Amino acid sequence: MGAGAAGALVAIQLCETAARRRVPFELLLIDPAPEAGRGIAYSTLDPRHRLNVPAGKMSCYPDDPGHFVRWLCHHGEPGVRSGDFAERYRYGAYLADTLGRAIMAAQGVVAVRRLRTRATGCHWTTLPGGDPRARLELADGRTVEAHRVVLATGPSRATAAWAPESLRGNDRFIADPWAPGALDAALQDGRKEDVLLVGTGLTSVDIAMTLDRPGRTVHTVSRGGRLPQAHAVDPLPAATCATPLHGLSLAALRAAVRQHIGRVMRTHGDWRPAVDGLRPVTAEIWASMSTAERAEFVERDGSLWNTHRHRMPPATAEAVGRMRRTRRMRTYQGRLGSAATRPDGSLTVSLTTADGPRTLPVGWVVDCTGPGLRLSDTADPLWRSLLDQGAALPGPLGMGVATDHGRLRGADGGTTRPLWTLGAPRRGELWETTAIPEIRAQAATIAEAVLDPWTAPAPPATGGPARRRTRRPTDTSGFPVSTHAAAATAYRLGVDRLLKVRTGAAQALRRSVALDPGFALGHAALALIGHECGADVDVSRALADARRAVRERAGTFERSFVDVVSRRVLHPPADGDAALLRHLEAYPGDALALAVAVPTIAFSGLRDLDGTTALRVVERTAPAHGGSWFHTSLLAFMRQEQGRYDEAGALAERALAAEPASGHAMHALAHVHYESGDHQAGRERLQRWLAHQGRGGSHRAHFSWHAALHELALEDTAAVRRRWAEQLSPGKVYGVRALVDSGSLLWRARLAGAWQGPLPIGDVLDTAPADVLERPATAFVALHSAIALTAADDLPGLRRLRVHALRADEVQRSVIAPLCTAFEDILEERWTDAARGLERLLPRLPGVGGSAAQREVVEEALLYALVSAGRCEAARERLEERLDRRASPHDRRRLTALSS
């Protein structure tokens, strides 16, 4: 009951949890509003009304904090950051859209009905079997029955008890400024009468901005006379209080909090981190207070706390500041005493203020005091029916109702009815319970409680036949998976395409989780390929889904794999590598995990500096794979990394004979030809494979890139230009692959003097998302972002990437950040500094992952810088060393030119 923000958040959790668990039920959403999700708070159309919490803290999901920010980025605001304050209307659209998606994803499991009316009563009966049943009375005269009820009614409506009798019935008194059309008369063209807002909180601020116009003064009055404080433009992290606050008397608590704020002020020069640091323990402190202390706090400290805790967005604070400086907004500490109607229908109001009596002529008085605190005084018929029949019990100080983790306590103190509430009705117990971060956590808890009785395992049978055990389906490597046969089949197809480096992997994996939203491995594999392969996947969302699902039903193998993916996405590279090694130690036959360990085409691999760890893993897992074409392909790749090219070539040919479409085997063979200097044969073999077995490959651009490297070595510049146009230009390649393959080829072509005229690198940058360019998730992608930005002469972009790298994982800090500095030196023609920086970096480059051929682009930049700095002898030595390893007509010509 109630489909505003709180109701939408519960409905989202119910739909998604039920879909994961495959628990069918009917969900009724009872609310008169035209659209679910908005409620009163997020229905405003005024763009000046903004959230008073940064977007990064407003996700629907407690375990996916970036969800709202990503939604904004995909819905017309690509540059939004987590610290921005979005329009409130946009958040309402986000809630409605997320709910709609959850309902669609649960189709076939959850049947959803919207009843556009209001619930006016809820009466409970007990069926013969002891099952409680609710009969809900609706405002349109209908009744419906329900087994579980969630009261998501939001805050109580204001009662205007403060207003004198002469004002309450007056047409110029606006009791609910959020009611549709309530402010229309005051907003009519030509109306400039002053307005009095009673209340100085966030509601008052929003209404003041809406009513602001030249020639009008908006007066505001409250007992405290305080406007909300402003959020910092550049906020500091929350500062935890060093003193334990639980169990202190109210006087001692005041002193401890003042000391905490003082310490933070001395350290940071700002009180906000101190107040933010109290948020995690606010409910605990409130619960430890006695009833008398709570009452004293509300009376003496509540207003001061609210003005500092619930703050204005910076843009709102700036607008309010302008209004106050120009006297279009005036604030008083006091109360309204009386109101009289003037001959023209306007009002004369008298205020009792701290500066003495004041009389104001105003056109309207608006109640901005906010919701009522005492639910026990409510006139709402739904809550009244529950309180009167003893199904609900007033909470502390009469605020809200008494609950046990959201489940309502009846007059007898018990929780026998399946009846829950969240948000504002829990104010008396929690104090801080009206913001989205608290409500979304309560929604998840309630969804679990509602569905748990329907998903609990059946008790063991006593006597009778034993239950027949069904065999679980398996993944590609033969490990049992916790899903049904159809989802497992789609998953195996997706993994098979990943192992063969063929297209369609993401589509098959998406189908697996569409068939079973609770399939943890499907979600985890999607997160993995989004994070490491650049697939079009919402990585954070997929990972959150995997972690939810694995908690509900999964074996040890599945839990281990999800842990691997979690650590590779969320933790430093060393943690991800350690988790992967542990997993492969326990499950050496897991082909997908083994593919992740080897830095070939799709994955960045184990990021040790010399590649020995990946080699040991491949060799150690050989018995578990029994000479399969896939394992042989990976072994071929590792052998060529060792420089054992003859052996690597033989292994690659053996794998291709068993599986001609093996992209990993062909990739290993491409490296063998390149590192052996057999450029003509390498180009021809790649051409044949791309034309036949490789036509369905998911990384055709990378094989084309390999062919182009042969053409650069052969100095066939016309072939390089042709290959770019036909196989590597944007439109043929997208996203991360455009950076890794197309962007790096253009930069190498420029360094080699093989590209005359303007470099079309701008097209490559246009196809890569901004967050990939300037906030890449992995060091491997960051390397290629730096290359592309350098090729584009984008000095500001390089500097932004360097700032990101300094805040990222250790590899990005130690390799990518100094690499950006060296590339900046190249763009500003500080050749000696550039060469010195690149020389220092070369030994550390293997830590970014990828192949030696991919990382060679940095050595090419070093050669260019050495020659430009006049250090030709150092350049000659590097070229001679490379020519000793492999033949290259281009390197031979460069060496001859340097020696002449």
Automatic annotation (TrEMBL):
Q: Name one Pfam family in it.
A: NAD_binding_9
**FAD-dependent urate hydroxylase HpyO/Asp monooxygenase CreE-like FAD/NAD(P)-binding domain mapped to chain residues:** 2-154
Region (Disordered) residue spans: 454-481
Query: Which PANTHER family does this one have?
Result: BLR0577 PROTEIN
This protein is called FAD-dependent urate hydroxylase HpyO/Asp monooxygenase CreE-like FAD/NAD(P)-binding domain-containing protein
Whose protein is this, by species? Streptomyces violaceusniger
